[in-house]
Amino acid sequence: MTVNEYKKEITSIFNHNSRNGFADWRQCGSLERSLTGFLEQSSRELEREGRYKDLFDITCRAFVKWSNTDKDDSNGETQSFVRSVFDIWDSVYERGSQDISHNKMFEWFMGKLDSSLIDYMENYLLDYVMEHFQEPHLLDKKLTLLESKIQEQTEKAKEESWRIYSVEGYQRMVMQVFGEQGRPIEMIREYAKKLKGDKARELLADIELRYGNTDQAIAIYEALADDECRQAWGRHEYNLKLKDLYKSNGFREKYEVLLERLLYLETGSDDILTEYKALIPPENWGSVRDSLFNSFSANNYRALPWYASEKCYDRLMDGVEAAGYHYLKQFEKLLGARYPERCLEILVRTAEEDSEQANNRKDYQHLARVLRWMQKYPRGPELASELAERFRAAYPRKRALIEELENF
């Protein structure tokens, strides 16, 4: 096939999966599947023939066409499409330089980073450019682009204050390029002082690591990890990165202290428990584990996966009773045969609570599912029948409830 034939097929796919230039949520899923399937097949054919320039051209055409098509992509179709495009661009970037140079690829990207695409698609392009094209003269061109973006967004921020976040994002990219260029670390540190936010601090730490300044990087991550704990956001990525830094750089005592802290920050993480267990002599693990588990409150549902993996079934049953029937779903295979009466009691309690709160057919259907679930256990059929009779008697005017429970 010629390039034009490939491009015509792309146009045909869009026409077939849209109406009057719009792809609704059903069409958008079909559009994404058809288009990525076609691109992947085209990639195999054109790579086999060494036609990397043609492959780049048709993939770029698809990217622009996707950007210009109005669509309901609420099921994540754009992200899936972009991942496929990036994979193809990576193939061209890594293996196709004899057919199309990095310079030529870069020129196309620069030509589209002029606000002609919808903003989120332009952001994808910029992300790709920032992760590739490390040649010195292309790094210089990246800086020129970023400086113009900063100036543009700074002016717009005078009228639209939210654009200051775009400015900060472009400034972080400038600092990234400075690091890739190998500029003096003192200059990069000075530039970092005017940037706000944890992302900028993390970027500086990563640049320090690249420059071999481990102590400085660790100091930044220590501050980030402390802030993370104080803010109680529920995420602990900086603590996890700091742990790995301690471990890889031989700070054993700090590593072990932080790992113990992560047992409480990341309770339920198989990776954390496995890593901690590796530090304990096997003959001591039982007592150490019991001491750890004793420190958790009875209703700490995050610890349930650990109780399961360590086969501490009494603790697991206690925890599921405290946490509720949703967790019985998760652990019933481990608990049902061992503690049938206690599992059944959770379901009885759930049914009683549901009957008091239910006020529409969907709620009544859920109540019926709980009663059917009870029937799996010894004495379950009798109890389910008794509860259904009681609920029907208690709510005689709820016709939908009576209908849903008529088979019990």
> Helix tally?
22
Quaternary form:
single chain
- What are the low-pLDDT stretches, counting only 5+ consecutive residues below 50? none
Q: Helix content range of the residues, please? A: over 70%
Characterize the overall form. extended
Q: SSE order, as H and E?
A: HEHHEHHHHHHHHHHHHHHHHHHH
Please state the CA-atom Rg, rounded to the nearest Å.
29 Å
Strand content: under 5%
The largest beta-sheet arranges its strands as 1-2
Q: Which class of secondary structure composition applies to the elements?
A: mainly alpha
| Distance N to C terminus | 65 Å
Structure explained in plain terms:
By secondary structure, the chain is an all-alpha fold. Among the domains are: 1-133; 344-408, no CATH class. Helix content is 75%, strand content 1%. The protein is built from 22 helices and two strands. It has helices spanning 3-16, 25-48, 52-68, 77-95, 102-112, 119-131, 136-157, 164-181, 185-193, 198-210, 214-231, 237-248, 252-265, 270-277, 282-294, 304-309, 313-323, 325-335, 340-357, 361-374, 380-394, 399-404; strands spanning 22-23, 70-71. It has a two-stranded parallel ribbon. Helix 1 runs parallel beside helix 3 (52-68), helix 2 (25-48) packs parallel to helix 4 and helix 12 (237-248) runs antiparallel to helix 13. The mean pLDDT is 95.
Offer a quick outline of the entry.
With 408 residues, the protein is mainly alpha-helical. It has helices at residues 3-16, 25-48, 52-68, 77-95, 102-112, 119-131, 136-157, 164-181, 185-193, 198-210, 214-231, 237-248, 252-265, 270-277, 282-294, 304-309, 313-323, 325-335, 340-357, 361-374, 380-394, 399-404, and strands at 22-23, 70-71. The mean pLDDT is 95.
